[in-house]
Structures are given as C-alpha cells and as structure tokens.
C-alpha cells in the first residue's frame, strides 16, 4: 500500500573508486600528450572541478547514513570514476560500480531504482581523446550490475520514468564509437526509443510524468518525439531530474550558453558539448531539477543530493529540496 506522503531520495554521480581505480591516480594526465593541455587540465581540475576524483567514496556512506528510511531512492547514473574511459567493460570500473550499487542495495533493497550514466558506458577523456562508449559496457551494466536501460514505476498519479541518456543522444557520440559496435548501439537505441514511446503513450489522462535522465544532452532528442510533445503540451510534465553537471554552477552556465553554434574545430569534446548547448533551449520545457554530485565542485564545494515529498494523490505539490553535504565530512 502506498503511504500518504512518500519520502524520495535522489543521488547522482557517485563516482565511486575501487582499490584498482584508486591505484590509477593521475589517470587523466597520463592520456594527454601535449604538456600545455596537461597544464590546463591540472588547473581546471585542481582549481574548479575536483582535485582528486578518487577521494570521495565516504560521501556515499554519508548520504545513506543521513537518509535511513526513504520510501523510494533513485540513483541517477555514473557509479564509477571511469579511470580507463571505457566504462563498465573495464574490470576496475565495474568493481567500483558494483561496490557503490552494493551499498545502496544493502541499505534500500527494492526501494532503489537506478539509471545508467555516460561514465558507466565509457566517456572519452576531456583533453586526451582516450576511450569512449563501449557496447560491452552496456552489456555489463545490464547483465553484471543489474541496471535497466529503461524503467517505469507508477506511484498514484505519478509515472516515474528512468532512461539511458547516452542511448537517446547516441548521434552526439557517433564519432566516438568503435566501428564494430555501431550496429549494436543502433539496435539498443531503437529498443530504448520503443520503450520510452510505450511509457509515454500509455501515460493516461490526468497522470503526471517525472523523468530521470542522467545527461541533459538527451533532452533535445526526447523533445522531437511526438509522444513527448503530447505529454509536454498536455501539462503532464511534472519534472525532469538530471545529474551529470555535478554543480548548479554548470547548469547556470549552460542556460546562459544555450543556442551557441556548434564548434567543430576544437576536437571531439568541444564539438559534443557545444552540440548539446546549441539545442539546450528546449530544457525549460522539461522543468529541470538538477541533482548535484555528492562532492559538487572543488571551487564551490557545493555537493549534496535531492529529497522530495511526493503525494501520490497529486493534491499537494511536489516539493524538491537540495541538501548540501559538508565538504569536510569525516572519513576522507
């Protein structure tokens, strides 16, 4: 029986580091050949983004300790540091995800829902151009880690829908795919689109949609879907919870840069990011709620998670609260 008011916990971008991933300290710098780019990457990471990506496992335990009894938990992707840049096809990264998911499943059992993030599938390094999405990583996410590429949970008037952003936004990553993987990726994307269309078309009158998608790069592709257009036009879009950006600062910057031209001449990463930003004007139709990473960014130290109070009858508005974690948590 659904309780009158449900406590919902959302966390994202845990980026857990197994012992094998922690042993790869400095993994980003090692794939950058140009010394000036190495210097730029070091300045970005140490001053703005995150000085040591392997040093934040304790933040997951802190979130669990602070939230012992939610009625529902959504983990919105990126369970691994992805130090080899090829996602869960790398045994060390897969072990990181297994440990993170194991902690969450031990604490929350069948109350846990989880989406697949871009790092879980493999993400080309920011400056070095190493790695990229691997079809084997998708298989490992599903078969070894027990993740679903698309899931639906109905709670009263609300339909919660979790999707895999990298599958929906696959054209953006086209140049990063291995040639041998392309047919499999395309097949997986079509299966994802079919599942999403089914979930949206069967929403029903008077129902409301809460969408969970890791990377907002997928939103313009969803925006082109007639079934999603009908949901938005009917006023049934309650909220879209994203991760990926780690900090509200990046979301604010992205909104300011929405509509900029795509940059083709600065490499794969710049093209991918500017391609996403060029189409970001549609984000407002999805009513975004950003779930920060547990650590946030080095500059602002603004990490945390989301909590929500959900009334299944829909008579009370859905209230979101962004909870900030102290930077100097014990256990580092």
Architecture overview:
With 332 residues, this protein is an alpha/beta fold. The chain has one domain: 4-Layer Sandwich (Purple Acid Phosphatase, chain A, domain 2). The protein is built from 13 helices and ten strands. The strands form two sheets. The chain has a five-stranded mixed beta sheet with strand order 3-2-1-9-10, covered by helices on one side. It has a five-stranded mixed beta sheet with strand order 4-5-6-7-8, with helices on one face. A hairpin with an 8-residue loop joins strand 9 and strand 10. The protein is globular and about 55 Å long. The protein starts with 5 loop residues before the first strand and ends in an 8-residue tail after the last strand.
Q: Determine the CATH topology.
A: Purple Acid Phosphatase, chain A, domain 2
Structural class of the secondary structure composition?
Answer: alpha/beta
The CATH level-2 architecture is identified as 4-Layer Sandwich
Tertiary shape = globular
Spatial separation of the terminal alpha carbons: 40 Å
Summed over residues and divided by their number, the pLDDT gives a mean of 92
- Whole-number total of structural domains: 1
What is the CA-based Rg, rounded? 19 Å
Q: Ranges with pLDDT <50 over ≥5 residues?
A: none
- Provide the β-strand percentage band: 15-25%
Give the count of helical stretches. Answer: 13
Output the strand order for the largest sheet: 3-2-1-9-10
Order of helices and strands: EHHHHEHEHHEEHHEHHEHHEEE
CATH class: Alpha Beta
The named CATH superfamily: Metallo-dependent phosphatases
Helix content range: 25-40%
Report the sheet with the most strands, covering strand number, pairing sense and barrel closure: 5 strands, mixed
Annotation, overall tally of beta strands: 10
